[in-house]
Amino acid sequence: MQFFKIPETDLDFEAGKGDCIRERRDQKGRFWLSKPVFETDPGCEEMRPKP
Amino acid sequence: MVTTAEAIDYKGKKVEFPLEYAAENEIPDEELHEHLAKPSTERTKRLKARCRWKHASAGEFVEKGVCAGIERMRLLTEAHKASEGKPEVMRRALGLANILNKCTVVLQDDEFIIGYHAEDPNMFPLYPELAYMAVADYLITDYAPQPVEEAREIMDYWVPYSMQSKCEHYFDPEDLQRMYQVSTMEAPGFATGYNSIVPPYETVLEDGLLKRIELAEANIQMAKDKMAEMPWDATKGLAWLDKIDNWEAMILVDKAVIAWARRHARLCKIVAENFETDPKRKEELLEIADINQRVPAEPCKGLKDAFQAKWYTYLLCHAIDRYASGMAHKEDTLLWPYYQNSVIDKSFQPMTHADVVEMVEMERLKVSEHGAGKSRAYREIFPGSNDLFIISLGGTLPDGSDACNDMTDAILEATRNIRTTEPSLMFRYSKKGRSKTKELVFGCIRDGLGYPSIKHDEIGVQQMKEYGKFSTEGKGATDEEAHNWVNVLCMSPGIHGRRKTQKTRSEGGGSIFPAKIMEVTLNDGYDWSYADMQLGPKTGNAEDFNTFEKLWEAFKVQYQYAASLVIRCKDTLRYFEGKFLQMPFVSSIDDGCMELGRDACELSEQPNGWHNPITTIVAANSLVAIKKLIYDEKKYTMKQLMDALKANWDGFEEMRKDFKNAPKWGNDDEYADAIIKDFYEDIIGGEMRKITNYSGGPVLPVGQAVGLYMEIGSRTGPTPDGRYGGEAADDGGISPYMGTDTKGPTAVLRSVSRVQKNQKANLLNQRLSLPIMRSQHGFNVWHAYMDTWHDLNIDHVQFNVVSTAEMKAAQKEPEKHQDLIVRVAGFSARFVDIPTYGQNTIIARNEQEFGAEDYEFIDADL
């Protein structure tokens, strides 16, 4: 899981808000999930903002 | 062993039937369909191999790991609790916006069209705001959303707010109990949550949502200016209040949709820049990111834009805002401008025709992964499939010219290549349609896909004009707009385009089951064989009917009771949908709703009231047998018949033979056909037509059997057509009973063509000879048959072209027959995922061989 800050120009920008990206793999293949979280939320394991 | 058709003498010459593709001489009958799939690229081959099918069989999901997600119901509930006190339409907008703003978005390897409707590609959402019974069903299964305790709390929260609770109050509990038996009537939509829609895709692709927001903003300003006019006139001015609420709700959801699409764009960019190692895919992900940044906010400029914007609109209208079955749109007409830009002019997103075929194959696989959170009952009635997804093609344009184009061909080519059960296709057959496209239609049918199903183009146009006359808004379809019709679900036609489309299923689909109604008509409205309860009004016992006319009149009363109750439920639901289940996103993309500031559920500009008598032929054949053997020939008394039926014919074998051998529908038999024609026209259509629905139009029958012919058959006792209790009923609105159409394919057409009044939307299943269809004469025979069908003014026909040998082989070794597809009713299914009871109904259908007389009747060029 990795945390990516939402750019200030995006419609859903809020201070401290980012996309928590998870890579998953199962018997059918690989996929990614993205869920909006705040830096203060628990859940996205690596809350270090990515550039 | 390979079976080929026997040579015949025809028009003075001997005609042989060699296979069109010589290589098939080496493929045994038992495995033919496993050799027909040909994905056009390595990518679609991979995507098909890893497709996350959501098929159900006997109500159970076939693939492990498929289950309901909790995210949608959680986010909807959170918004509902937080929005108390706001206008109801705004609460609905806030609910959808909360889902879109906070939901998980999904991106899978290899896909180009992106977007999913649940938090994991193995999941599907639930809809507690519709029907708590449909959610309760999941909570006790392996497919329950997790944590199940939270799901139960959410369901309980919605009980007082759900459509089910709001509507139930207005019905006699005894009537509802009768409906919940699902034997003479379908359960009410407010209890099942089953729904369908025709989204106005055109506005999304042509305008983009930013333009729709601008329109709503301008309308609000206009409304405020009007309200400020002096002197104040409350009789006019107060009407703006609701309109302003509707426009504000539209703006709110459209902004949320744009942000949601752009979250997908951001995910693609993040994956490209941080995770993906393949440089080609990295580049592609950046292209997808660019597309999703622009659409559906902006108008589509190329074909890739159009596929993506269409997919988002589909997800919103069919799965995220609320559940709706179907995939109603005129895909070839909708995408043609973008095909021209990308393939012909190469002005934006340049690509080849082959690239388009790949795009369609990818779209078909997206649909194949789409899971529907339907109740168990509804999973059971579509065995071997996910849901009903029907796309329309062909036909004529508003100026009357042929609507087939190269996009039509790309869709058909891709369909044949990729070989999936879904989405199904419907082809509007006009004699103006170009031969090249018809050959592709035939290619899909010959390969056993069971689709395209075929509808008569001119009849559909006429139906739209006829319904348009009843518009309470005075805005029914114009003569030009009447050409813009698609199948709303598997059978009923409805307008497509920027406005006047069907928004919710109150307009159609309420099912009434004449086979069971026949049974209770003989028993004073009582169901002795299944529910052991009164199912309809008391209309007398069979022994009391001393004339056939009295039986006829009693059936009519029972049928009217069932039809009126079913449609009253539909319209009551529609009333409450307009008040509590508004669809501001759909409103925002409908030109009528946008212009008038009205909600999509509430506004109806074009009536489209098609409802659904299924199992009509069991009842009709029963009437024929009764009239002949009891009233005309007096060979038996009604008491003897009732004794035999109560014994399930046990001890009455000779008598059963007589009833079984009485004339049957589909054999061009004048005696049977005269009775059955009257039955369809005076009762099935005539009684229904007396009803006026929400939209102000009459209700007409659209016999679309889905898998309900199996369910209803299993709940219907023995019937006077010689059928044993529990045997399946007839499989289509006007199809002959399985195995009883023994006089050839053209005799079926002649029988069906006799029914012309009060209806023109009945499903006709036919199983055609596989060796003839795969021969060098296959297309010519089919084409001549279709032109004859067209001339006979029959509305619909669809085909199975599959051998009994292969179906029986698949029953023995299902794992070797994953690509064997059959037409069940209004949908095609993976044969091995259909329960044996249902499989046997397909095998039992008569495989129509063409004889010299048939060829002459259709004037085949052999």
Automatic annotation (TrEMBL), chain A:
InterPro entries: BssC, BssC_sf
Pfam family of the protein (one): BssC_TutF
Database matches in Gene3D superfamilies: Benzylsuccinate synthase gamma subunit
Protein name, entry field: Uncharacterized protein
Automatic annotation (TrEMBL), chain B:
Domain PFL: 42-724
Record's keyword annotation contains Methyltransferase: no
Keyword terms, alphabetized: Lyase, Organic radical
Domain Glycine radical, first and last residues per copy: 732-851
GO cellular component: cytosol
Database matches in InterPro entries: Gly_radical, GRE, PFL_dom
Entry-annotated residues carrying Glycine radical: G826
Listed name of the protein: Glycyl radical enzyme
Gene3D superfamilies referenced in this protein's UniProt entry, alphabetically: 3.20.70.20
A Pfam family that the UniProt record links to this protein: Gly_radical
GO molecular function: lyase activity
Annotated source species: Desulfosarcina ovata subsp. ovata
